[in-house]
Structure formats: C-alpha cells, structure tokens
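Quick question about two entries, pasted in order.
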Amino acid sequence: MKFFKTKDILYDKNVVNNDFRYCQNIIYLAKNKQGKTYVGETSTPFIERLKSHLRKKSTDFESAINRKNMDDFKWTILEDNLTDINERFEREKFFIKKYNSFENGFNMTKGGGGTKGLKHSEESVKRNRLAKIKYFEDPENKKKQSKASLLAHTINPEQAKEHSKLM
C-alpha cells in the first residue's frame, strides 16, 4: 500500500499519478504521524474530496487537518471502482472496523452513510456554538442570513409561521 503526503496529491503532479488523484467511487484512508486513522468513501474525484476536508472544520478529523499541518497526514486508496453506493458503504464499514478508526481514530460513526444519528460531544457543541457567534458578529454575514431567511419565508410562508411559533 503506497501512501502520499497531502501536498503531493494537491500540488505535485510529478509525484502522484493522476489516476490516483482523480479516481472516484473509492474507499480511502488517511493516517497521521501518530498512526491515528480516518476511513472515508466518496463518489467524487479523490482530489476534490481531499480539498473539501481541508475547507471544512465540522468534524474532529477536519479540525485536525489544515493547511499548516496537512503533511502530518498521508493518504492511500483502499478500494476503487465501487460504483454501487450500498457496496461502497459496506466496504467503508469494513475498513473502519479493520483499522479501528471509530474507537481509536478520527471516524465519528461506524460508516455507511454519514452522520445520521450522530450525537455531538459537549466539546463539539461548544465549538460549533462559538463559531456561529463569531460568524454572526460580522454585519455582512448577518445581512446574508437575513436575505436568505426572507427568501425562504417568501417561498414557503408556512415555514415562517412555524419558525415564529418555535421562537
């Protein structure tokens, strides 16, 4: 199994075969320097999935990997050509169990379809709350949200009534 550094996948076309960078319908593994792993599945090109991990910060894994320490992680493809989504989910579950990445890694679920039913830790709830507070301190972000809410309530007036009842 060959592992590649994050920056080599993203930036160095000479090091990484383009078939690896752009393969899709895969199960992949990320491993940090301490040996902690993350198993994921994607139907999109691998390079795009990797970029999305770097952009987001909604999971412990995405918080752990960022532009400053991205080369603390190495990546490999465990399986490819898994065009059937149910098969891909089953294989993801298999590899999460094999690499113990739910109990001792970065996976927040046992796999097979995302975070449905996930219960956030108190720490992640607090982190998300503080991020939202910080986001809405910016007047431009408040305007964007106000416009989006106005549009949503115009399209669906019942939503506005339900929201008012709830609040």
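Here is the second entry:
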Amino acid sequence: MDFLYKMSVRKRIIFLILLATVGVFVSGLIPILSSKSRMLADREMETRYVVEAVFGILTFYHERQQAGTLTLEAAQAQAIEQIKTLRYGNEDYFWINDFTPSMIMHPFKPELNGTSLVNFEDPLGKKPFVAMVEVVRQNKEGFVHYMWPKPEHKDPVRKISFVKGFAPWQWIIGSGIYVDDVDVAFRENLLLVLVDLLILAGIISFVFFIISRTILRQLGAEIIPLLESVSQMAAGNITSRVQSGNGRS
C-alpha cells in the first residue's frame, strides 16, 4: 500500500473512482455470468414438463383403445396427428420413435418416418436415438445430449432432449432445446446488464468527480495561506503567524 502514500490527493481520488467503477462491474457481472447454467437448467426442466404433459395424449388414446372405442391403429394415428402439430417456445416440437429404434413421426423431417435410426450419427459420431432407447430402458426417461439441425437450417447444433417411454405401444416421445438458443438469450441479458452497469458507473463517476472537485478546492483554499505564512517565516519574519484557510492561527 506504499504506492498510495506516494500519490497526490488528486490521483488518490481518481484511484477511488476507478476502484468504485470496477466494483460496480464485478458485482453486476458475476451474477449474470453464473446465470447461464441456471438458464440452461430452467430450459431443460421446461422441456421435461412439456414432454410429460404431451405424454398424457398418448395415455388418453391408449385408454380409448383399451375401452374399445378405437382400434390400436386408429388410436395411434389420432395421437400422432395431434402431437405433430404441437409447438412451444421458438418452434420447438415433439417427435416419436420406437425402441428398434425407427422414426414414427417427425414433424420437420417426414422423410425419416418409417426409417431405421440404428446407424444414424451426429457430426460427433454419437448415435442419439440409440442413446435415447438406452436411457428409456434404464430409467424410463431422461436427457440425451447430441447435435441436430434446427428447423429450416442445415448445419447441426448442440441439442439437449428429454425422452420418455410409453410402454403400452413401445414408443418413445421426446422434445429438445437448442443450446445456441440459450446462448442467444444469455447474450441478450448480458448486453442489457452491461448497458445498465455503464449507466450506473457513469453516474457514480460523475458524483465522485463533483465531490473530488469540491474537496480539492477546499484543500487549495486552506493550504495557500498556510504556504504564505511558512514562506514569510523562512524569510526571517518570525512574527508571522501560521494562518489556515479560515483565518485562524
């Protein structure tokens, strides 16, 4: 801390302003930087909830099949027609595959319907649908990480899906979130926080600047008479009294 004692009053005040500004940014950025993982966890839970909600559609049509009001084929067809039109969030959707695994219904890639997914790999070499079957066999439901192209896009991006098995029909229903959507939302929030912090830092710096100017002016008003008195005493005028800025000795 010796460097502080070597600083002038003006430099010390500037140092305090800079220190306060840095403190504002640090205290404001730490929470937002740690919020990305929370945002991702929230989106994962949202995906889980919507899959569990849509799972009720399968249960409903299975019960109608069990009651004899619908055949198996009719119950499955009606469930598929209802689920494939459902959307939430940013064009997020649901798909259905079986345990072989083969695609039963994909709303944005109908060319996959009825095809085997055993050898389907993402750009990293992972077989996502095989992984989904394994997760469902072990835990009946769960999350799977892989890469998949967004609707109306060609290049795959990171995706986290929640899948849940429907045992009576040996189906797996799933939906997922794209990690880059979370990244975009995070950057938007970060930009808003940065703007707020810049405004706050500007206000704090301005207030410190006004206060520092007042302090420096007061110091200057008090020290000038003191320097004049000391100068006279050094010249041999021992009758000169040391004066302070308020006129008292």
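Reply: The two ends are 34 Å apart (CA to CA). The chain has a mean pLDDT of 82. Hope that helps.
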